[in-house]
Amino acid sequence: MQLLDTHGRIATDLRVSLTDRCNLRCQYCMPPEGLDWMPTEEVLADDELIRLIRIGVELLGVRDVRFTGGEPLLRRGLPGIVAATKALEGTPRTAITSNGLGLKHTARALAEAGLDRVNVSLDTTDPETFRTITRRDRLDDVLDGLAAAKAAGMTPVKVNAVLLRGINDLEAPDLLRWCLKHEYELRFIEQMPLDAQHGWSREAMVTADETLALLSEHVDLEPQGGRGSAPAERFLVDGGPQTVGIIGSVTRPFCGDCNRVRLTADGQVRNCLFAREESDLRAALRGGASDEDIAHRWVAAMATKLPGHGINDPSFLQPTRPMSSIGG
Q: Which domains does the chain have, with CATH numbers?
């Protein structure tokens, strides 16, 4: 069996949300007071989570597993979950997307468990701007976490940055220089309509074209072809070898090559980041369903995947769940 949709795309990249909780309050994600977290009993237990990942990998052809959140480092037992995933038949590639706060304490253990790569969200290296965006004074912890991931051998360490107009957009060249200096691979991501406050607006979003124009005033950028199903368009910086990526999720959608499927912390399949419908695997899991039955339910969930995210359609509606509850 494969996770094939009706448009011929096959999902081989599984994004697994481990928790909806986070220890930052980034402006483009959630309000200052935070959100109402999922009740503990609704969140998949470790053995339930690992079983679903195993079904995805061994029965449905998943080759890449990325752990997300909320903040995945808040999930107790994460090294054990990574090790169990890495031990599956086919040895899937493993990664996490993190805010980096806890990496200085966990990077070594995660690497030893088999984690291959880490993406860290970092929108600025200026302490005051960091406090403005995240509403927390934790920049040094993120920087230490990045260094720890690099020291643990999870390279290339990737940095994800969102530019906010009037806040950190003009810092983009400085952030690029900083990442080049530390040998981190930087990727700028267009702000997406996934905030809990539903405050996103197209006019306020810094576009991929704007980001490229700003960077090009400071460095030479040479487009690199062959993106495939990867979301980032990559550019060689000043002749290389280092690169910078631009993810134009809104203005340069890559839906036609999408190979992703998402599993929320409460066991719901989402076949698109912007889907407004979900398929419940937790109920089947806790109801005694066999692996094969769950696999068939998962395949059926993929059949409803739309050809694109629809952000640029006038009828687009933002998902009910915010990003912290979906997983990136």
A: 13-207+244-323 (3.20.20.70)
Say how far apart CA 97 and CA 21 lie, in whole Å: 14
Q: What is the three-class DSSP state of 293? A: helix
Per the document, the length of the chain is: 328
* Residue 306 scores a pLDDT above 90: no
Distance, CA of 186 to CA of 137 (rounded, Å): 22
SS (H, E, C) 204-236: CECCHHHHHHHHHCCCCEEEECCCCCCCCEEEE
Name the residue type at position 132. T
Q: Are 187 and 161 in contact (CB under 8 A)?
A: yes
The residues facing 158 across adjacent strands are: 119, 185
pTM: 0.91
CB within 8 Å of 96: residues ≥ 6 apart? 66, 67, 68, 72, 73, 110, 115, 117, 118, 119
Q: State pLDDT tens for residues 213-223.
A: 999 999 999 99
* Angstrom distance (rounded) from CA 72 to CA 53: 16
**What span, in angstroms and rounded, lies between the C-alpha atoms of 18 and 73?**
9
Fill in the amino acid letter for 121.
Answer: S
pLDDT of 149 strictly over 90: yes
